[in-house]
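lol forgot to send this yesterday, sorry. struct tokens for the thing we talked abt
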């Protein structure tokens, strides 16, 4: 199993911390996508809160990879975050569910230092998305 880092960004609209960036553990402090083409995970744009640009970057990157790579849980979770932040809860939910059912998963380190399987991280994001939606 690969080990990745998912750093969390505040999802104020949903009242939660949600996955935003994936990187290998050993390069946790690096400010780019390690092991991915630059922009493939929308890292810099997500950090800046520029969710439309992050989504555009990830969608463009999807066109350059194999169908299997399009189901990368890190990308799916990051796309879910971008959609959620832009208010498209149905697309966010779809991407989180795809990360949950992905063929492979990664161990991820959350911003608070906890280690979590990417499926579990996606379930948490989905649960928070549903809780935020229900509280509106």
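and heres what i got for the seq, position by position
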């Amino acid at each position: 199993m690969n080990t990745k880092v998912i750093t969390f960004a505040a999802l104020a609209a949903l009242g939660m911390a949600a996955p935003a960036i994936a990187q290998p553990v050993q390069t946790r402090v690096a400010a780019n996508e390690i092991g991915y083409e630059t922009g493939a995970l929308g890292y810099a744009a997500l950090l800046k809160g520029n969710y439309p640009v992050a989504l555009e970057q990830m969608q463009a990157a999807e066109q350059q990879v194999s169908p299997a790579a399009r189901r990368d849980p890190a990308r799916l979770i990051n796309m879910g975050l971008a959609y959620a932040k832009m208010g498209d809860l149905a697309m966010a939910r779809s991407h989180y569910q795809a990360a949950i059912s992905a063929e492979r998963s990664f161990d991820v380190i959350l911003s608070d230092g906890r280690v979590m399987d990417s499926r579990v991280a996606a379930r948490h994001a989905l649960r928070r998305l549903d809780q935020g939606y229900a509280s509106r």
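Residues 37 and 61 are 8 Å apart (CA to CA). anyway ping me if u want another try
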